[in-house]
Amino acid sequence: MLVALVTSGCAPKRTTANVPPAPQPAPSNTTPPNTKPPRAVPPNAGQPSKNNKPEPIAPGGYAEQGIASWYGLPFHGRQAADGEIYDMHKFTAAHRTLPFNTVVRVTSLVNGEHVDVRITDRGPFVGNRVIDLSLAAASAIDMVGPGTARVRLEIVNAPTNPAKGRFAVQVGAFSDRTNAERLRDQLSARYQIISIQEGMGPNGRLFRLRIGNEPSEDAARKLASKLHSEDGFETFVVRLDDAQQTSSPD
Q: Domain containing 233 — which CATH number?
């Protein structure tokens, strides 16, 4: 914020007026960024793991590290997976398996900056990425320009035990429902529980094909490994939220 100095060049005395700073917008009701000073950059910060996959760490509590990305338009103003309208200027994020309203501290392993976000959406469904941040959250850890950064996730608080719930394996996403149904029919002889979840992607509606209704994330990961080794699918383990659990498979 610049402080303007107004001086009179001709008068025998100079007068200086301090212009008050412009009012700042009130903070949102969602979780604000953490205001603690940046942490020291850890050794080997930003270096990928050998397999560049998400890594569960810290046996004393939930922690995860991997690649974070961020999303804004065209999702801004659309309905998020928890039913609220996504606002890219609030401190929220998308995660595949954490319960909605879980507050997560995201620490950049590139620069040590961190921010707290609330989980309101599902995703990311791209490669090894572990979380999709809002524009506001990505700005807080200086990630907007690069687009991605290696991060560490730690739960600040959660409405329920993250280990409990029902989980499935996503094996494909299609813009044409017919293609999703065709693959479902091919797999139905080998897998009993197959569902098609309708949602929005960056270019419009998507139909995501999911297999299983597993009692734990570990069980879903075993199923994902089987689908990858036996069928060659690139898979994602996802939490089945209430609406998905109670709906009948397609």
A: 3.30.70.1070
Residues 6+ apart with CB under 8 A from 13: none
For residues 131 and 180, state if they share a domain.
Answer: no
pLDDT, position 36: 42
Co-location of 112 and 196 in the same domain: no
- CA gap 100, 118 in Å, rounded: 8
For residue 249, the model assigns a pLDDT of 43
Looking at the chain, the number of H-run helices and the number of E-run strands are: 4, 11
- Kindly report the backbone phi and psi dihedral angles of residue 118, in degrees, each rounded to the nearest multiple of 5, phi listed first: -105, 135
Tell me, yes or no, whether 111 lies in a domain: yes
Q: Are residues 152 and 187 in the same domain?
A: no
In a domain, 5, yes or no: no
Q: How does DSSP assign 146-183, residue by residue? A: TSEEEEEEEEEE-SS-TT-S-EEEEEEEESSHHHHHHH
**What are the pLDDT digits (tens) for 46-101?**
333 333 344 444 434 678 999 999 999 999 999 999 999 999 999 999 999 999 99
Angstrom distance (rounded) from CA 29 to CA 91: 9
- In the predicted model, residues of the chain with pLDDT beneath 70 are 1-61, 242-250
Residue 115 has a pLDDT of 97
Q: Which domain holds residue 219?
A: 167-246
Enter the DSSP assignment of 196: E
Contact indicator for 87, 75 with CB cutoff of 8 Å:
no
The pLDDT assigned to 18 comes to 43
